[in-house]
């Protein structure tokens, strides 16, 4: 049951739907409008940030500050050293964080934010190049900047044309455009992204090696070529992998025997009591290097439709084993 709020205005569902659609249309138009502003200045800023010896210092007040924090985070996670400095705090000591080797990216839709304009002389005196991201080319910020990125929009999505909506969306998209152009120019790869996101799913997939998740030592089920069938079964049962490697005297893998092999032999009515491991094994099993990525082991298992794989060292000798459960516990799958 919905309890009406006293003195609450009547809710018009149709108007809410219409405003939602109009907001998306306005913001989409604002983003498309940015394309006409991407030109030589944008290229110069990318070149400047690509060569920065320090960091890209992003600054902004209010909603532009929130956008600035996100742009700084995106830059940092895609290979461009960056940090956010609050303009008001900069006036009270944090300006010391900015060095001449840095590049300052100041964000303000109006270009006249008092907290930003107040510190412009100090930034200029430091000698750090100043990039202005603003919607007004004739603003104080744009006039004092070394480079100007136009993030202007024709109107806000707010019905009152007051709340920053389309303008902040434009700022965010322009920041993403910078980050994408920079990561491409740096030759930034998925592996690089993973290194800055080691706790995420991508980090686990691209940084986790087979050696990190495999079973090793006494946990690896293995028997010699002439081991009896009963010895083979005891080894499989004791290690709980659902398979056992069959190796020669030098430790080279000659074959594998799995639960599936056992079922198939029983179905054929084969007398296993007098068999040796060599007689029942599946020769030339799938193997993987201990230095391979764990995600490669996942792909191998999926391609071959198997649940276990043997791991070899640099000399091609058995050094480990893993199955799909091991990979799930490591959250690689």
What does this structure look like?
With 333 residues, the protein is an alpha/beta fold. 45% of the residues lie in helices and 16% in strands. It is built from 15 helices and 12 strands. It has a 5-stranded parallel sheet with strand order 2-1-3-4-5, sandwiched between helices. Strands 6-7-8-9 form a 4-stranded mixed sheet. A 3-stranded mixed sheet has the order 10-11-12. Strand 11 and strand 12 form a beta hairpin. Helix 3 (62-77) runs parallel beside helix 7. The model has no long low-confidence stretch (mean pLDDT 88).
Describe the protein's topology.
Blueprint (H helix, E strand, L loop, with lengths): L12 H22 L5 H11 L5 E5 L1 H16 L4 E3 L2 H4 L12 E5 L6 H13 L3 E5 L5 H5 L2 E4 L15 H20 L4 H6 L5 H7 L2 H4 L8 E3 L4 H11 L3 E5 L5 E6 H10 L8 H4 L1 E2 L3 E3 L4 H11 L3 E5 L5 E6 H6 L4
Parallel strand pairs: 1-2, 1-3, 3-4, 4-5, 6-7, 10-11
Antiparallel strand pairs: 7-8, 8-9, 11-12
Helix pairs in contact: 1-7, 2-7, 3-7
């Amino acid at each position: 049951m919905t309890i009406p709020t006293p003195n609450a205005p009547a809710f018009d569902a149709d108007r809410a739907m219409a405003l939602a659609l109009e907001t998306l249309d306005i913001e989409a138009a604002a983003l498309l409008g940015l394309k006409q502003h991407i030109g030589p200045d944008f290229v110069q800023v990318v070149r400047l940030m690509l060569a920065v010896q320090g960091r890209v210092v992003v600054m902004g007040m209010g909603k532009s500050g929130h956008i600035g924090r996100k742009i700084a985070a995106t830059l940092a996670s895609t290979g461009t050293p960056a940090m956010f400095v609050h303009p008001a705090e900069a006036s009270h000591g944090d300006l010391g964080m900015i060095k001449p080797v840095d590049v300052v990216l100041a964000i303000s839709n109006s270009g006249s934010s008092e907290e930003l304009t107040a510190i412009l002389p100090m930034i200029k005196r430091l000698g750090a190049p100043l990039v202005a991201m603003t919607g007004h080319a004739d603003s104080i910020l744009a006039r004092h900047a070394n480079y100007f990125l136009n993030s202007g929009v024709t109107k806000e999505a707010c019905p009152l044309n007051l709340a920053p909506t389309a303008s902040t969306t434009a700022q965010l998209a322009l920041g993403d455009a910078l980050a994408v152009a920079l990561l491409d120019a740096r030759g930034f790869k998925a592996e690089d992204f993973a290194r800055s996101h080691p706790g995420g799913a991508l980090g686990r997939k691209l940084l986790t090696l087979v050696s990190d998740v495999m079973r090793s030592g006494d946990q690896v089920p293995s028997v010699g070529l002439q081991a009896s069938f009963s010895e083979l079964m005891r080894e499989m049962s004791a290690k709980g992998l659902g398979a056992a490697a069959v190796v020669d005297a030098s430790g080279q893998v000659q074959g594998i025997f799995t639960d599936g092999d056992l079922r198939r032999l029983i179905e054929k009515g084969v007398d296993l009591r007098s068999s040796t491991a060599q007689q029942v094994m599946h020769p030339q099993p799938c193997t993987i290097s201990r230095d391979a990525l764990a995600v490669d082991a996942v792909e191998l298992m999926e391609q071959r439709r198997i649940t276990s794989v043997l791991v070899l060292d640099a000399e091609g000798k058995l050094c480990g084993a893993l199955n799909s459960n091991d990979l799930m516990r490591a959250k690689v799958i």
